[in-house]
Amino acid sequence: MSSEQNPTPDIAAADGPRPRRLTYAAALAALEGLALVVAGVWVLVLGITGEPDDRQQAVTLAITLVVLALLPLLAARGLLLRRGWSRGPAVITSIMALVPAYSLLQADSIAVPAGIVLAVVAVTSLVLLLSPATTRALGIRGPGRAQEPTR
């Protein structure tokens, strides 16, 4: 069979315009990545200029946050390019964002609005990423459908 008769998922997913919900999901994944970068830089600045209990721990956390930001940023790029692999990292990042959102919501301070925003972004991102239109646009097939032709 030629590649036109049996396209790969990434090639098949490129047919037609990109759904808006896929673009929105990519934007939210990029926003989550940028938030991790900002948090990492903030921790680094506080660790260097402030008086943390352990400066080395603050710097290590900052570097970890910046490196972790690569996951949603690469996922956002993959979503824009309609790569099927990109949905997994974006979903994982959104699920992981619910943990700090819950923690922020439990605070008795100005952190509560930040928790609300983070929770809304994470849940919205999950809804967009798990929608059937996004799944089709990325060329992802369910279990047992690997042999079915793409549309």
Give a written overview of the molecule:
The protein has about 150 residues and is mainly α. The chain has helices at about 10-15, 20-50, 55-70, 70-80, 85-105, 110-130, 130-135. Helix 4 crosses helix 5. The protein is elongated and about 55 Å long. Residues about 1-15 have low confidence and may be disordered.
Comma- or semicolon-separated keywords:
151 residues, 69% helix, disordered N terminus, 7 helices, mainly alpha
Shape: elongated
Kindly report how far apart the N and C termini lie. 17 Å
- What string, H for helix and E for strand, traces the elements in order? HHHHHHH
Main beta-sheet annotation: none
Residue share in helices?
55-70%
Strand-pairing-aware structural class: mainly alpha
Unreliable segments of 5+ consecutive residues: 1-13
> What's the rounded overall pLDDT mean?
86
Q: Total strand count, please?
A: 0
- Radius of gyration (CA) equals 19 Å
Which range does the strand content fall in? Answer: under 5%
